[in-house]
């Protein structure tokens, strides 16, 4: 694939063009070479920033892949389903997200009082540890907003087992720099590397594997050999998958789009001329400053979405202006606000706080779950392979 340009064009047109350009390589080539982290990332799609914000939906990417490869592309399809699996898994266990936020707050407090830890953390974030590869990935991430999947795995493994830094600080470092930073995929992948997802199983980065898959660019020394799992509590029992709300017909309705779902495919199908507004929570991905590349991508994606809806001046609100959002709707005579369901994360939390403000003003909030999620999430009860059987057959 052509390398991801900086800044990355955040438009629906760029997303669909990238998918179309990648599809010829989504079959055998992807299966054989997707693990190679080479300059320009030629063997992976680079679609995550688009799919994460649903400028392009998972369902669209899966359908297009099936059409282009009626007999194959199993590996690429499975990777696309991983995103849905992680979202569903977290959606059934919201306590895992709260525990991450709690663990992060505790680790941030430790940084205030443990000077040694703070220095190590700063060196890791700046890419100044002296560990071959690791320093490059830290700087690549901050400079581009993207890392190859294998680099993410090596980086997380070295962070946890060699540098012995709290995993929550690493997950936060990713979440504030990755343009595709996603509460479910990120938190659960870090937990998986640290042995908190599959009991007894961790991911160990090794010099040979790194050298082999980076074309010999990196061969770090001194990596931890003992990668014993972090101490884990048992997973909470899964709750039932959410069902979302049903909009009432006939009410004066507005559409709220947000960065979990910019409705690249036009969802939800409301009459033309339905007032549109946006909710942005990008700054809440971390308690620290989020990379400007992430903000720029989301802002541009919102601009593109508004333009595609023919409403370039659609107002934007943040989770700090929820009262203003509710007042705006009340002043317009809105009685119902329809929005795509936001999976666990800052947007869902903001919608949770918005609901009573709307209620006070006689406005009904309808969070609509896409068929793709409604059908798949209930299967995210155990491991990926059981999920995959259920959704891919
Ligand atoms: C520690 C760690 C943290 C991660 N954090 C994130 C994150 O915050 N946001 C995020 O979107 N992904 C995350 N991933 C998953 C994965 O690394 C990225 O989705 C992938 O690298 C994106 O690049 P791509 O689009 O070129 O992937 P491709 O290899 O081209 O894959 C195609 C698509 O499949 C999906 N996908 C592929 N691998 C995974 C995976 N392991 N989990 C979930 N979806 C996947 C993505 O939508 C991706 O765009 C993380 C992985 C690890 C190991």
TrEMBL record:
<dbReference type="InterPro" id="IPR002081">
    <property type="entry name" value="Cryptochrome/DNA_photolyase_1"/>
</dbReference>
<feature type="domain" description="Cryptochrome/DNA photolyase FAD-binding">
    <location>
        <begin position="76"/>
        <end position="202"/>
    </location>
</feature>
<keyword id="KW-0285">Flavoprotein</keyword>
<dbReference type="InterPro" id="IPR005101">
    <property type="entry name" value="Cryptochr/Photolyase_FAD-bd"/>
</dbReference>
<dbReference type="InterPro" id="IPR036134">
    <property type="entry name" value="Crypto/Photolyase_FAD-like_sf"/>
</dbReference>
<keyword id="KW-0274">FAD</keyword>
<dbReference type="Pfam" id="PF03441">
    <property type="entry name" value="FAD_binding_7"/>
</dbReference>
<protein>
    <submittedName>
        <fullName>FAD-binding domain-containing protein</fullName>
    </submittedName>
</protein>
